[in-house]
Amino acid sequence: MPGYGHKSRAEWGEEIMKYLAGRKQLARAFVLIDSKHGLKESDLALLQALRENAISHQVVLSKVDRILFGKKPKPSLERLRRNAASLQVKAGSIGSHLDNLDVRGPKALGEILACSTTASVERGKFLGINNLRWSVLAATGLHERRILPKIDETTSSVALAEESLV
What we know:
Layout (H helix, E strand, L loop, with lengths): L9 H13 L6 E6 L6 H12 L4 E6 L2 H5 L7 H23 L13 E2 L5 E3 L2 E2 L2 H12 L4 E8 L4 E8 L2
Parallel strand pairs: 1-2, 2-3
Antiparallel strand pairs: 4-5, 6-7
C-alpha cells in the first residue's frame, strides 16, 4: 500500500489511515510482511496504528520461497520439508513480537499466513495463496454464500442469485 514502506510519503500514510479508520464496511486489512526482512519499523508503526484505530487486520508473510527454497530455481518438496521449521520460527518470532506490542486495541486476527507468488511445488499452485484467498472470503462472509447465474427465460437476461451455504 502506498504510504508506508519503501519510498513512501508520511502524508500518504496519514490519509490512508484516515480512510481505513472511517470505512465501517471494511472487514479486514491484510498487512504483508516480507519474510526475509521480518518486521521493520514501518511495519510496526502500521500495525500499531491499526490497533489504535481498532481496524481489523491479519498478518501475511510474503515471499516465503526465499526462506523455504533459497535461491534455487526449482522448488522441491524435499527442500520445503527441510526448511519449513525455519519459516515456523520466523512466524513464531513475529507473532510473539506482535503479542507484546504495548498498544491498546484489537490484536491481529487469526494465524499468520504465509505465501509466495513465485514458487510452486505443483504447477500453478503457489504456496499459501489458497489459504490467503480463504481468509479474504472468510473476512467478507463470502465463504458462506455461493453466487449462481440465474437466467430469466422471458428476457434471456442473466442475473446473479445468492445461495446460502450454511
